[in-house]
Amino acid sequence: MNQVIVYTSGTFDLFHSNHLKMIKYAKGLGDVLIVGVSTDELVSSYKEPPIIPFEERIQIIEALKYPDIVIPQHSLDHTEIVKKLHINIFVVGDDWLGKYDYLEKLGVKVFYFPYGKGVSSSKVKKQILTNYLEMKSKIDKHENPDIIK
């Protein structure tokens, strides 16, 4: 019996609904879903470090009902993992559009999940910072009460 093995991966920082939608979508494409969770070191090599530590992010993904296997992801080059795990389908967010087309030469179908314009951890972080700075500016403008001695 030939099973269709699907692989998806991500940072999954500040886990949100689009993460869940992509993982659920990936599960529907095959028989076995492997989810890679990017290590803190990997993420820090190309963008700001995650807010949530790797150990917690991988536990969140393991707790979901869709993944069959959850593994650490140490590289953005998926050639080796595709060969080792006999992956047939690769799913990634469309913010990486075109980046993984090279996997098609290895016989892997690549799907770019359309969520780049929706919710993202980067947008959530930016909104939190904006709200914090706005709140802080209001607080910092008030007078300190006199201290009674």
Helix run count: 5
Q: Which spans have pLDDT < 50 for at least 5 consecutive residues? A: none
Q: Write out the CATH superfamily name.
A: HUPs
Q: What fraction of the residues are assigned to beta strands by DSSP? A: 15-25%
**Element string (H = helix, E = strand):** EHEHHEHEEH
Cα radius of gyration in angstroms: 20 Å
Do you know the CATH topology? Answer: Rossmann fold
Task: Assign an overall shape.
Answer: elongated
Give the domain tally. 1
**Portion of residues within helices:** 25-40%
Return the structural class: alpha/beta
Largest sheet: 5 strands, parallel
CATH class: Alpha Beta
Descriptive terms for the model:
5 helices; 19% strand; 5 strands; alpha/beta; 149 residues; 35% helix; 5-stranded parallel beta sheet
Word description of this protein:
The chain has helices spanning 17-27, 40-44, 54-62, 79-85, 121-140; strands at 5-10, 32-38, 69-73, 89-93, 109-113. The protein is an alpha/beta fold. It has a five-stranded parallel sheet with strand order 3-2-1-4-5.
